[in-house]
């Protein structure tokens, strides 16, 4: 089963606001730490190594 | 310093061949009398091979080096260090050393989680035993000295090596000068800075880690449980790691990560070390410094374990970071893999090409160990900001999130690598359940033999064996050329006293396992078929591609 890339999140604007608000009061270092923790929590929930591999590939930004 | 142990001094004796000037051609010369070279000698002597061991020193390992010995090496020493009626080497090591199975991991000022090595019960050897390397070596030297087939020569340094078609010529330097000798085969166990590696022009590549660790052995009277403790970024050593292990004789081993920029000369100063130790154990801690040294490490391996007639084992063949105790533990398994093959070749019962499987199998194991120790090193000493963030994220989550605990990597402790794709294996013809796949080390189990309680592994290791469950196969031995596998039938030759062998070997009636002399499974079947067994035996002994 491939990584789902079509919209899945209900109330996307609401989610987006929650995501930003969750980090608003954090300094850069704590922001980065929180993002790492979030990645790990969600990666574990996904579980499937193929899916995770696909997500890693999609996430990697193009270097200019 | 150095209060708890007195280093033995072994006697240098000039050999007859040096004195007479008539070089001998030995069957096997082992270079290096560390744990690996000494184990190689015991392995070969047990198989009837005469061995000369050369060491450029005249004592055992100085200082604090290998500490943790895993179950598999203990099983090997149990088998190769077996005197008649006396406790085996493995039994004595398990007795002398400190057994442990619990570990605690701390992050900053809090415990993160604890692990149990969870050794499956009812195996002869324990999961892990701590013992100073000099104690291990002294026991190995004594075992070698009692073996007439082993000629242990101290203060013999190999200074030159010239390969020929059917032998290797060695130039050896002793206090009486340089002499020439020859060997049909050489096993290079001369350690991390192997001279023989250089002499054969071997490649040795991998990763060198820019970090330094301080080792301190201390003597402390206070009793603490034998539990491994690992600290990530503790308050008493900010931004670095600390590891604590218990050894016998009230000696404790502490490893402090120092970082690459540390000044070794400053850090080795006794008062500085004492300060660090007090920070870990408490300001009131009473202890004496026994040993201090600084090490760096690399994860690399030799290009080929076999260079013609020179075979490499131990640190001469591979180096790993110490996290996970994969150095000596892997080296012992190298020579356990090599010895039976070399003995068959020397006896003309197997082709020399069988020795190529030593490279195939042990390079594979080395790569497995390198990968594991590199991963541990990256977790313990993250190389980039991103890496450090994830490391700290795992440690922070592990406190409350069970999923994060398996991600905490303070060193994955050594287990034997199964030879998954070895050319010596015969793949399963039909679906076979159970963990005893071809290439896997045999599991131990409590059994009964001749009316007495014993262990399954004690029955395996004299040549090839055919472990059979259910109906007794019609032959006592299966042969392939000059190699035989003798039958060990459950019910007639041994009894599965607690039913654990049947469980561990998924032993439906008719199940048969072909076991190699190093106690690895070569093949398995659901019914006995003499032709299939013979074919598998031929393959496992290199007689068939």
Care to describe what's here?
With 64 residues, chain A is mostly helical. Chain A has a domain of 35 residues. Chain A contains three helices and no strands. The relative contact order of chain A is 0.13. Chain B has 545 residues and is of the alpha+beta class. Among the domains of chain B are: 227 residues, FAD/NAD(P)-binding domain; 35 residues, no CATH class; 95 residues, Glutaredoxin (3-Layer(aba) Sandwich). Chain B is 27% helix and 27% strand. Chain B has 14 helices and 28 strands. In chain B, strands 1, 2, 8, 9, 10, 11, 19 and 20 form an eight-stranded mixed β-sheet that branches. In chain B, a hairpin with a 2-residue loop joins strand 5 and strand 6. Chain B starts with 15 loop residues before the first helix and ends in a 5-residue tail after the last helix. The model of chain B has no long low-confidence stretch (mean pLDDT 94). Classes of the chains: A mainly alpha (64), B alpha+beta (545). Chains A and B meet through helix 2 of A and helix 11 of B.
Indicate the topology:
The complex is a heterodimer of chains A (64) and B (545).
Chain A: H1 12-23, H2 28-46, H3 49-59
Chain B: H1 16-20, E1 25-31, H2 35-46, E2 51-55, E3 68-70, H3 71-80, H4 89-96, E4 98-99, E5 102-107, E6 110-116, E7 128-130, H5 133-145, E8 150-154, E9 157-163, E10 168-174, E11 177-188, H6 195-199, E12 204-208, E13 213-219, E14 228-232, E15 241-246, E16 251-257, H7 264-267, H8 270-281, E17 288-295, E18 298-302, E19 306-307, E20 310-312, E21 318-319, H9 328-346, H10 356-380, H11 385-398, E22 446-449, E23 452-455, H12 456-459, E24 464-468, E25 477-480, E26 483-489, H13 500-504, E27 512-515, E28 521-525, H14 530-540
Parallel strand pairs in B: 1-2, 1-11, 2-8, 5-14, 11-20, 24-26
Antiparallel strand pairs in B: 3-7, 4-7, 5-6, 9-10, 10-11, 12-18, 13-16, 13-17, 14-15, 15-16, 18-21, 19-20, 22-23, 24-27, 25-26, 27-28
């Amino acid at each position: 089963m491939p990584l789902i890339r079509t919209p899945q999140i209900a109330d996307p604007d609401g989610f987006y606001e929650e995501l930003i608000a969750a980090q608003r009061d954090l300094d850069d270092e704590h922001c980065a730490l929180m993002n790492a923790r979030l990645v790990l929590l969600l990666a574990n929930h996904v579980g499937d190594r193929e899916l995770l591999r696909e997500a890693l590939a999609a996430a990697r930004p193009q270097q200019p | 310093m150095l209060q708890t142990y007195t280093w033995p001094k072994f006697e240098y004796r000039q050999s007859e061949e040096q004195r007479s000037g008539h070089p001998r051609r030995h069957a096997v010369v082992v270079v290096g009398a560390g744990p690996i070279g000494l184990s190689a000698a015991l392995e070969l002597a047990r198989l009837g091979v005469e061995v000369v061991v050369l060491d450029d020193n005249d004592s055992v390992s100085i200082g604090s080096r290998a500490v943790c010995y895993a179950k598999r090496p203990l099983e090997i020493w149990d088998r190769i260090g077996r005197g008649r009626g006396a406790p085996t080497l493995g039994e004595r090591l398990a007795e002398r050393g400190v057994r442990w199975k619990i570990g605690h991991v701390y992050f900053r000022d809090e415990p993160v989680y604890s692990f149990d090595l969870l050794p499956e019960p009812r195996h002869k050897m324990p999961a892990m035993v701590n013992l100073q390397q000099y104690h291990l070596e002294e026991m190995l030297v004594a075992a070698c000295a009692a073996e007439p087939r082993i000629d242990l020569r101290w203060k013999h340094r190999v200074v030159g090596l010239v390969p020929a078609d059917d032998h290797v010529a060695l130039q050896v330097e002793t206090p009486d000068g340089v002499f020439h000798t020859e060997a049909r085969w050489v096993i290079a166990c001369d350690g991390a800075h192997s001279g023989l590696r250089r002499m054969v022009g071997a490649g040795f590549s991998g990763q060198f880690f820019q970090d330094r660790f301080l080792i301190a052995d201390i003597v402390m009277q206070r009793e603490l449980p034998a539990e491994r403790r690992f600290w990530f970024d503790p308050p008493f050593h900010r931004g670095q790691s600390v590891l604590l292990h218990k050894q016998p004789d009230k000696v404790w081993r502490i490893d402090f990560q120092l970082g690459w920029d540390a000044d070794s000369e400053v850090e080795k100063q006794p008062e500085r070390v004492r300060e660090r130790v007090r920070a870990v154990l408490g300001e009131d801690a009473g202890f004496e410094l026994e040993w201090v040294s600084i090490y760096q490490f690399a994860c690399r391996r030799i290009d080929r374990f076999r260079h013609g007639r020179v075979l490499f084992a131990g640190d001469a063949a591979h180096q790993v970071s110490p996290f996970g105790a994969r150095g000596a533990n892997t080296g012992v398994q190298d020579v356990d893999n090599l010895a039976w093959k070399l003995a068959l070749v020397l006896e003309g019962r197997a082709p020399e090409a069988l020795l190529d499987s030593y490279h195939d199998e042990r390079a594979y194991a080395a790569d497995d160990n390198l990968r594991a120790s590199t991963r541990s090193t990256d977790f313990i000493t993250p190389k980039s900001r991103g890496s450090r963030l994830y490391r700290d994220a795992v440690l922070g989550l592990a406190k409350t999130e069970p999923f994060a605990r398996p991600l905490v990597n303070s060193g994955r402790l050594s287990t034997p690598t199964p030879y998954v794709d070895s050319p010596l294996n015969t793949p399963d013809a039909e679906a076979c359940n159970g963990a005893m796949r071809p290439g896997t080390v045999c599991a131990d189990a409590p059994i009964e033999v001749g009316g007495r309680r014993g262990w399954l592994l004690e029955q395996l290791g004299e040549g090839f064996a055919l472990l059979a469950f259910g109906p007794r196969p019609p032959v006592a031995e299966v042969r392939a050329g000059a190699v035989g596998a003798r039958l060990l039938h459950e019910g007639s030759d041994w009894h599965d006293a607690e039913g654990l062998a049947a469980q561990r070997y998924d032993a439906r009636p008719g199940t048969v396992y072909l076991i190699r002399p190093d106690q690895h499974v070569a093949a398995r079947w659901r019914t006995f078929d003499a032709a299939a067994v013979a074919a598998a035996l031929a393959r496992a002994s290199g007689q068939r591609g």
